[in-house]
Amino acid sequence: xxxxxxxxxxxxxxxxxxxxxxxxxxxxxxxxxxxxxxxxxxxxxxxxxxxxxxxxxxxxxxxxxxxxxxxxxxxxxxxxxxxxxxxxxxxxxxxxxxxxxxxxxxxxxxxxxxxxxxxxxxxxxxxxxxxxxxxxxxxxxxxxxxxxxxxxxxxxxxxxxxxxxxxxxxxxxxxxxxxxxxxxxxxxxxxxxxxxxxxxxxxxxxxxxxxxxxxxxxxxxxxx
Length: 224
Known about the structure:
mainly alpha; 9 helices
């Protein structure tokens, strides 16, 4: 029997020890905590703008960091991410496969963005130096990073992004395996239920064969 090429990547365990359901729940709770902390920081910044407000003079540019419009957009994104992570955690815990799909789509989108960043660094390596020049003068280790050889800096950044992409790809596979496990388990439960009902309907009643056999007696014996 031929199997799908994707079947070889299917596994019920992740991180070499725990089940994919447990791993997805842990991942959803971890993202939920991170986005909750980010939301608290954004809300505190909205209530006290002077604490997190950086002027253009402090940044050394012609823009302001996190104005009111950007803060509102970031807050809305954090609320959406909290909802998506809560849905994934609940779906993995209650075995509702459809609830995991939004979180899986977010993972694919995040992986695609990081891939585009890696491609842009590889195609346009000079953008790294331009980005470093735009950083504030008081940015930590700015001078040390700019003094590194540009080629070595590109290699280091690409290696770092590759490690992040590999880790994100592994998390995507864990969530996808959890979705397949829950979906396959729900389908098998439905199949067992239907098969059981069909078997019960197809079996004839016990009295019918007995009555049918007793209805026609054998012919009388005639001696030659």
